[in-house]
Amino acid sequence: LAAPAGARARQIPSVGQYGDIVNHIGELSSVHHMVGGTGVTEWMQLFSPFHLAGGWDGPIEYVRLRPGVSCGHHLHDRREEIYYIIEGAAWMHVNGEELAVTAGDLITCPIGTYHSIGVDDGAWDSMAFLVVEMSPGPGSGPVGVPEHFALNERETDALGYWGHEGDDLVVATVDLSRHLTGAWGTFTQVEVPPQTTIGSHRPRSHTAQLLLTTSGPAEVLLGDEWHKWGPGLAIGAVSPVTVRNPSEDEPLRFVTLAVRY
Fold first, then answer.
1. What is the pTM of this model?
2. Which among 40, 110, 182, 209 would be 20 to 30 A from 134, CA to CA?
3. Digit-coded pLDDT (tens) for 71-102
4. Which string of b and e fits 245-259 if b means at least 16 CB within 10 Å?
5. In this predicted structure, what is the pLDDT of residue 130?
6. CA separation (Å) from 248 to 88, 168, 192, 253?
């Protein structure tokens, strides 16, 4: 029988049907005039929501903008969204306000947010960011307010984080459930010093986790398999995760996003 009009096409598997997903930022697609912007945006979908555990029902994307390139003004009327600036600097127009954003910044875009992002013509370097979208929660109430978090200014030592007993980690966390209405959990930026291992960490009950390495070398144990990569290792995890920095002198940075189901 045909599904009734307006029914969701996606059938949600049981928790036991989900597996871990590993991807790497590699060859990027060229998108001309993304949502009416200028120039050619470099873009990659890291994960399709159809294969991820958790409440994801929108794409998870990596975007790179060279000087003079922008994503045009557009309205979020169906999905909430977060931007995390991975590297470089850009400007954002959010509901009529111009923001200067740089690496380590997290921007929330609730339903009703009208925004764009771009890099000035005269900039020296390109910039890159992570985009995650999700539907709002049922009975989500009044329209929220976009927020701009400079995570580098919120960093603290994290004794005990992911079972690590030392105080040499540097961590900044935002509880997105306080700012958005969907199945969002915590967004965390972590710096791991050389020759340091954290974990094993199992996502909390009814929670899946996105992990993305942003700088430095990484060795990630996912379940029973090690994945060795530099920046751009992306993991959608339901299994326990261990992260190790094998470098003798370079810190490792990564971000995680927990999502409820």
1. 0.91
2. 40
3. 999 998 889 999 999 999 999 999 999 999 99
4. bebeeeebbbbbbbb
5. 98
6. 25, 15, 12, 15
Tokens describing residue 210: 């996105």
Residue written as token pair 């967004």: 187
The predicted-structure confidence for 108-162, as pLDDT tens digits, reads as follows 999 999 999 999 998 999 999 999 999 888 765 556 799 999 999 988 866 668 8
Read off the tokens for 200.
Answer: 């094993």
Nearest to 220, CA basis, from 194, 249, 240: 240
SS (H, E, C) the chain: CCCCCCCCCCCCCCHHHCCCEEEECCCCEEEECHHHCCCEEEEEEEECHHHCCCCCCCCEEEEEECCCCEEEEEECCCCEEEEEEEECEEEEEECCEEEEEECCEEEEECCCCEEEEECCCCCCCCEEEEEEEECCCCCCCCCCCCEEEEHHHCCEECCCHHHCCCCCCEEEEEEHHHCCCCCEEEEEEEEECCCEEEEEECCCCCEEEEEEEEECCEEEEECCEEEEECCCEEEEECCCEEEEECCCCCCEEEEEEEEEC
